[in-house]
Specification:
Blueprint: E1 11-18, E2 21-28, E3 31-36, H1 43-54, E4 67-74, E5 77-86, E6 89-94, H2 102-107, E7 109-110, H3 115-122, H4 126-131, H5 136-165, H6 167-201, H7 206-256, H8 265-301, H9 320-326, H10 332-340, H11 346-436, H12 442-525, E8 530-544, E9 547-561, E10 567-570, H13 577-594, H14 597-600, E11 603-606, H15 614-624, E12 630-635, H16 637-640, E13 648-650
Parallel strand pairs: 3-12, 3-13, 7-11, 11-12
Antiparallel strand pairs: 1-2, 1-4, 4-5, 5-6, 8-9, 9-10
Protein name: Chromosome segregation protein SMC
InterPro entries: P-loop_NTPase
Biased composition (Acidic residues): 249-258
Length: 653
C-alpha cells in the first residue's frame, strides 16, 4: 500500500461544534478504525470533522453554535480550520491538509450523499464524473503549444536541409576562387617583374615615373572604391527585391485573414457570461432538488409520512416553487396535504419523488448542453484571438518590411551619389595619367595598368572568397545543430503523444480499475445469480451545443444467470439495494485509484452501509483497507460485530 506524505502516523483530532459534536478529541491510528454506535451518536459528524481537517467544506456547524473548529495533528504538522456562521451559510478559514479537496470529496470521502457513490444508482454520466478532476482545456492548450514548438523546429530543420544542399556548390565555388586568386597572383608577379626590368632601362626618367606611379596608385585605389560601391548597390537592390517578395507574401496572407477576426467580442463575452450564469443556476437547482429528494427518501425509509412538513422545515436550499410546479395536476387537497404536513398515501409521496428525480435528470441534461455550448463559445473565442494575434503580427511585419525597404532605398540613393563622385574622380585621374604618358613610358604604363587591374581583381576575388567561406561556416554550424534540433523534436513528439493520449489513458485506466475490482469483490461477496458487472467504453455521436460530435461514454453492463446456468443481461434497476451500494462504492474506489488519491489523501471514509449485510460489510472493509492508510468506517453495533477484532474501535465520540 502506498504511503502518504506523513508516513504511518497516528492522526489526532480536536473537534468543537461540528455536526452534533459539542467537543471531543479522537486518535486515529493507521489501518482500519471502526466508529460503532447507534444512530445519533455523532459518527457521521466525526467523519465530517475529518473532511473539514482535510480541507473540505462539506461539514456543518452545530445547530446552536456560531463557530466551530477542528485541529488535526499529523506527524510533525498541525492543520487547523474554523467554521463560522455567516447568515444562512458557513464560512471556512484556515489551512487544511489538502490544497484542493475537490477530488477527495468525490472519491475518498464516501458518505451517504457522495456523488460518485450514488452515480451508478441514479444513472449519471459515469465518464463525466471520472473525468471531472481533469482540466481538459489545459491539456488542449498544452497540446497546441507543443505543436507550435514542433512546427518551429520543423521550419528550422527545413532551413538547415535547404542550406545544406547549397554546400557542394559553395565548396566548389570556394575552390574555384582560390585557384583564380593563385592564377592572378602569378600573373601579377610576372607583370611586376616586367615593370622592374623596364624601369632599369629608363632610370633617367625616374622622377616622372614616380609621379606617374603615384597617380596610377591613386587611380587603382579609386577604381577599387568605385567597384566596391557598385557591389554595395547591387547587394542593396537584391535585398530590396527580397523584402518586396516577403511583403507581397505577407500581404497575400493578410488578405486571407478576416478583417475583424474578433467580431463582436463584447457580444461573445456577454453570451459566455450568460451561459455561466445559467450553469450556476442549474447547479444550484440540481443541488436543491437532490436535497429535497434525499429528505423525502429518508422520510419514506423511516415510514414517517406524517412528519413531512411545509417547505420552511425542509432542508436548507430546497426550492418550494419547484415542488409546487411538480404537484400541478393534483387536486387541491393533495397540495394542501403536501405543504401542511397532513397524512398522505405512500404512493402519492413516491410518485412525487419520482417526478422530482425526473426533473433533476432533465436539469442535468440541460446543464451538460450548456457546458457543451460554453466549450464551443470558448473555442470560438480562442480561435478568434489567435487569428487576431496573427493579423496584428502580419501587419507589424509588413510595416517593418516597408520601413526597411525605405531605409535601403535611401542607402542606394546615397551610394549612387557616391558612385557618380568616384566615376568623376576616375575620369579625372585617367586624364592626368594620359597627360603624363610619353612614348618612352608607353610600355611601362601599360604594364602598370595591367598590374593595377590584377591587384583590383585579386582584392575582389578575396572578398568573394571571404563571403563564401563565411557562408560555408554558417551552414556547417547549422548542420551541427540539426542533431540537437531532431532530439528536441523527438522529445516534443513523445510529450505530444503523452498529452494527446492522456484523456484516453485516464478513461481506460478507470474502466480497467472498476472492472478488475468489481470482478474481485463479486467473487468475494458471492451474490446469488449475479455473474458480472462491468463498464464498456463506447463511442457515440451526441449533440454538444450547436454541433454533433463523437464522444466516449461509459456503458454499465450487468450479467445474471438463471437457475439452469444461462446468462442474460440485466439493468441497474433490478439490482438489490445491497448490490447497488457495492457497485457505487467500487466505482468510487476506481476514481480514488485512477486519480492517485492513495498517494496524497491519507483518509478514506465509509458511512451508511446498512443496506449491506454485516458479513459482506466485513469483507468490503477488508478489501478497501488495502488501498487507504487510514480507513474510517461508521457502523451500527450489529454490523460491526462481524469485523476483525484487531481493528481499532471507537464507541464514544
Amino acid at each position: 500500500m502506498p504511503e502518504s506524505k506523513q508516513g504511518s502516523s497516528i492522526a489526532h483530532f480536536d473537534v468543537t461544534n461540528i455536526g452534533g459534536i459539542d467537543e471531543t478529541s479522537v486518535d486515529i491510528p493507521p489501518s482500519v478504525t471502526v466508529l460503532t454506535g447507534k444512530n445519533a451518536t455523532n459518527r457521521t459528524s466525526f467523519l465530517q470533522s475529518i473532511m473539514a481537517a482535510m480541507g473540505s467544506t462539506q461539514a456543518t456547524l452545530k445547530g446552536d453554535a456560531d463557530e466551530g473548529s477542528v485541529a488535526l495533528t499529523y506527524g510533525d504538522e498541525v492543520y487547523e480550520r474554523t467554521l463560522t456562521r455567516a447568515g444562512d451559510a458557513v464560512q471556512f478559514d484556515g489551512d487544511g491538509y489538502l490544497d484542493d479537496p475537490a477530488v477527495a470529496d468525490l472519491f475518498a470521502f464516501l458518505l451517504e450523499t457522495n456523488e460518485a457513490r450514488r452515480s451508478v444508482a441514479r444513472g449519471d454520466d459515469l465518464r463525466e464524473i471520472i473525468m471531472r478532476p481533469v482540466d481538459i482545456d489545459a491539456i488542449r492548450s498544452e497540446v497546441e503549444q507543443l505543436e507550435a514548438e514542433k512546427g518551429d523546429i520543423n521550419d528550422e530543420l527545413a532551413t538547415v536541409e535547404s542550406r545544406q544542399r547549397d554546400l557542394p556548390d559553395l565548396e566548389q565555388r570556394r575552390t574555384e576562387l582560390r585557384e583564380q586568386i593563385e592564377e592572378k597572383r602569378e600573373e601579377l608577379a610576372e607583370r611586376e617583374e616586367e615593370i622592374d626590368n623596364s624601369s632599369r632601362d629608363i632610370e633617367e626618367s625616374r622622377q616622372e615615373q614616380d609621379v606617374l606611379e603615384e597617380k596610377l596608385d591613386e587611380l587603382r585605389s579609386t577604381r577599387s572604391d568605385l567597384e566596391s560601391v557598385r557591389r554595395d548597390i547591387e547587394a542593396q537592390e537584391e535585398s530590396i527585391s527580397s523584402l518586396k517578395r516577403e511583403r507581397s507574401d505577407l500581404e497575400d496572407e493578410l488578405d486571407d485573414l478576416p478583417e475583424t477576426p474578433m467580431g463582436d467580442q463584447q457580444h461573445l463575452e456577454d453570451e459566455i457570461a450568460s451561459l455561466r450564469d445559467q450553469r450556476q443556476r442549474l447547479n444550484s437547482e440540481i443541488s436543491d432538488l437532490q436535497s429535497l429528494i434525499q429528505y423525502n427518501e429518508e422520510r419514506l425509509e423511516e415510514e414517517d409520512y406524517d412528519v413531512i412538513q411545509s417547505l420552511e422545515d425542509a432542508p436548507e436550499g430546497s426550492d418550494g416553487a419547484v415542488t409546487e410546479q411538480l404537484l400541478e395536476g393534483e387536486d387541491e387537497e393533495s397540495v394542501v396535504c403536501w405543504t401542511c404536513g397532513s397524512t398522505v398515501d405512500r404512493e402519492q409521496i413516491e410518485d412525487t419523488v419520482d417526478r422530482l428525480q425526473d426533473l433533476r435528470r432533465q436539469k442535468v441534461e440541460d446543464l451538460n448542453d450548456i457546458k457543451s455550448e460554453l466549450d464551443d463559445l470558448k473555442t470560438d473565442q480562442r480561435e478568434a484571438e489567435k487569428k487576431q494575434r496573427r493579423r496584428e503580427d502580419v501587419e507589424r511585419k509588413i510595416q517593418e518590411t516597408e520601413t526597411e525597404i525605405e531605409r535601403r532605398d535611401e542607402q542606394i540613393t546615397s551610394l549612387k551619389d557616391r558612385r557618380e563622385e568616384l566615376t568623376e574622380d576616375v575620369e579625372s585621374l585617367e586624364d592626368e595619367v594620359d597627360n603624363l604618358e610619353s612614348e618612352d613610358f608607353d610600355e611601362i604604363l601599360s604594364l602598370h595598368r595591367e598590374a593595377n587591374q590584377l591587384e583590383f581583381e585579386i582584392d575582389s576575388l578575396e572578398s568573394d572568397l571571404d563571403d563564401v567561406s563565411a557562408e560555408i561556416e554558417e551552414i556547417e554550424e547549422l548542420v551541427n545543430r540539426a542533431d540537437d534540433l531532431r532530439d528536441e523534436r523527438d522529445a516534443l513528439v513523445e510529450e505530444l503523444t503523452d498529452k494527446r493520449t492522456k484523456i484516453d489513458q485516464i478513461e481506460a485506466n478507470a474502466v480497467d480499475e472498476f472492472n478488475e475490482h468489481m470482478d474481485a469483490i463479486l467473487g468475494i461477496l458471492e451474490y446469488e445469480n449475479l455473474e458480472r458487472i462491468w463498464i464498456e467504453r463506447v463511442e457515440q455521436t451526441v449533440r454538444e451545443g450547436r454541433q454533433k460530435v463523437d464522444r466516449t461514454v461509459f456503458e454499465l453492463h450487468i450479467v445474471r444467470t438463471t437457475e439452469n446456468g444461462a446468462a442474460y443481461e440485466d439493468t441497474i434497476e433490478h439490482l438489490s439495494e445491497s448490490e447497488r451500494e457495492v457497485t457505487g462504492l467500487i466505482f468510487a474506489l476506481a476514481g480514488y485509484l485512477v486519480h492517485d488519491l492513495h498517494e496524497s489523501v491519507p483518509f478514506m471514509l465509509l458511512d451508511s452501509l446498512e443496506a449491506i449485510d454485516s458479513a459482506r460489510i466485513a469483507e468490503l472493509v477488508e478489501y478497501f483497507a488495502d488501498y487507504a492508510e487510514h480507513l474510517v468506517v461508521a457502523l451500527l453495533p450489529e454490523d460491526a460485530q462481524a469485523l476483525d477484532d484487531d481493528f481499532n474501535r471507537i464507541t464514544s465520540i
